[in-house]
Amino acid sequence: MQLLSATLDRVKPSPTVAMSGRALELKAAGRDVIGLAAGEPDFDTPPHVAAAGIRAIEEGRTRYTAVDGTAELKRAICAKFARDNGLDYGPAEISVGTGGKQVLYNALMATLNPGDEVVIPAPYWVSYPDMVRLAGATPVIVEAPLSAGFKITPAQLEAAITGRTRWLILNSPSNPTGAAYSEAELKGLTDVLLRHPHVWVLSDDIYEHLVYDGFRFTTPAQVEPRLKARTLTVNGVSKAYAMTGWRIGYAAGPEALIAGMRKVQSQSTSNPCSISQFAALAALEGPHDFLAERNAAFLRRRDMVVARLNEIDGIDCPVPEGAFYVYPSIKGLIGKVSAGGTEIADDEAFAMALLDEAEVAVVFGAAFGLSPAFRISYALADETLAQACDRIARFCAGLR
């Protein structure tokens, strides 16, 4: 008898986690590896947020809560959507989960059936297609190349939609590219969706507050209010508030969908960590002045990394509008051979050779659905990033 479910044959482990794990193994063996694979800020959780978590422990706030979030946190999330996005939601339209990843998973598990399709622009966050497959549905990948700014067009979306399409997943600003849709670009996509009332929108806004150069963030339900009744807007405290380990994500959407997601969560994890919920409450309701300082650091790092990578022959690195990633093309390096004798047949070979020979961990582009490229997280100290860029430049100079 086969032990594992056939469902697992349709999915693969997260490549970002795998690359980070390989880097940790080499570090444990004494190698001086610089890890650029993990997508989390290097800043600490803001002191007032950490203090709220400690206070919750001291006050004994350590028991079960409502399955999908405390009433206090849900009210704070409603206030956040009104304040930041001009969207009006009630507590019954809010779901809180153990990270944005669980919220996304709950939504797909609650809505998808075999034969359904989900439109996903590529490059995509590695988990989107596999979550769709785990739910028994089919991901429909729409390529958004570098030449298009890593954004799909209304014509591409129109062509991808069929009678079986249930969702469009949008992530803006994007992991892995940092590309962000302007209000006008979103309006072009929402105009298409208005013509297809059976298609819902899952907007992953986790990098909302990490935008640069005066970019104005907007979200689909804000751009087109007529879509609000079939939009799930997902967000969380992980990235902007440097709370990746606290594991709190949330979403706003129609009450019937939220109820379905609650049912899924009630039979999996039940409530998110009570301590983390009180910390998230402090994050949403507390001061946000630290964001400007941290975004200035991210902007400085972005500009340095983009400039350094574009000095390397064979690499083309666009300037992202948000998040803390760059996604440079290595089209000009394919077919070369490294100093250590590795043929750079594809971006996975590039990433593995870079790790083994130059001790820099990145994630290869095939993991995100668009090659040949690689992703760098620049959420590290300036001096560490500069050293990593030096190593990448030397590695590429040694290619023949």
TrEMBL record:
Record-level GO BP terms: amino acid metabolic process
The cofactor required is: pyridoxal 5'-phosphate
User: Could you tell me the keywords of this UniProt record?
Assistant: Aminotransferase, Pyridoxal phosphate, Transferase
Entry EC number(s)? 2.6.1.-
Q: Note the Pfam families from the entry.
A: Aminotran_1_2
Q: Per its UniProt record, what PROSITE patterns does this chain match?
A: AA_TRANSFER_CLASS_1 (PS00105)
Reactions the enzyme catalyzes: L-aspartate + 2-oxoglutarate = oxaloacetate + L-glutamate
Cite the GO molecular-function annotations of the record: L-aspartate:2-oxoglutarate aminotransferase activity; pyridoxal phosphate binding
How would you classify this enzyme at the top EC level? transferase
* Transferase among keywords: yes
Domain spans labelled Aminotransferase class I/classII large:
32-392
Complex and partners: Homodimer.
What PANTHER family does the record point to?
ASPARTATE AMINOTRANSFERASE
Task: Identify its protein family.
Answer: Belongs to the class-I pyridoxal-phosphate-dependent aminotransferase family.
Its protein name is Aminotransferase
